[in-house]
Specification:
The chain has 149 residues and is an alpha/beta fold. The chain has a domain of 101 residues: Barwin-like endoglucanases (Beta Barrel). 22% of the residues lie in helices and 27% in strands. The protein contains five helices and six strands. A six-stranded mixed β-barrel has the order 1-5-2-4-3-6. The protein is globular.
């Protein structure tokens, strides 16, 4: 007996309909971040992996202690993927993308807070550019105080 399976073809054919495309679009994110440039595939040095612009670094370092900000707590962070561009912190302290700030040894950096999906207290990951702005050791464990705007 020969069986021909046509079901996947019908499913894939339906994937181009307008309603499917609308459903498959990611939800709007509360944080609008500038377009970031991924590191080149042959990146090997810290400077090659850090693709942030001078304007992005200046904005991250601008004093932004706002009256309405909320202290979320502290977390221990390690270096996240150097190939993931931007100035961010992946942390279990948030459940959605938000703008925020972290403090480390008297230095503050404005960044994007991203949910890590981890359990509370499981630690965080911080981007390479954020670590450089904090003048933190790339191989260290950083105790960060985290604030949301």
């Amino acid at each position: 007996m020969k069986y021909v399976v046509l079901f996947p073809a019908f499913v894939l054919a339906g994937c181009t309909s307008q309603s499917f495309q609308e459903v498959s679009q990611p939800p709007d994110v509360a944080v609008q971040t500038p377009a970031v440039t991924s590191p080149p595939p042959d990146a090997r040095t810290v400077a090659q992996f850090d693709t942030t612009t001078a304007q992005e670094r200046a904005a991250a370092m601008a004093s932004s202690e706002a009256a309405g900000e909320t202290r979320l707590g502290t977390t221990i962070a390690t270096l996240g993927s150097p190939a993931d561009p931007g100035i961010w912190l992946k942390t279990p302290l948030v459940t959605e993308r938000l703008l925020g700030r972290v403090d480390y040894n008297g230095t503050s950096v404005n960044l994007e807070l991203r949910p890590s999906g981890g359990e509370a207290g499981s630690g965080s990951q911080i981007s390479l550019p954020a670590m450089r702005l904090l003048d933190a050791p790339l191989t260290g464990l950083l105790e960060l105080t985290v604030f949301k705007d």
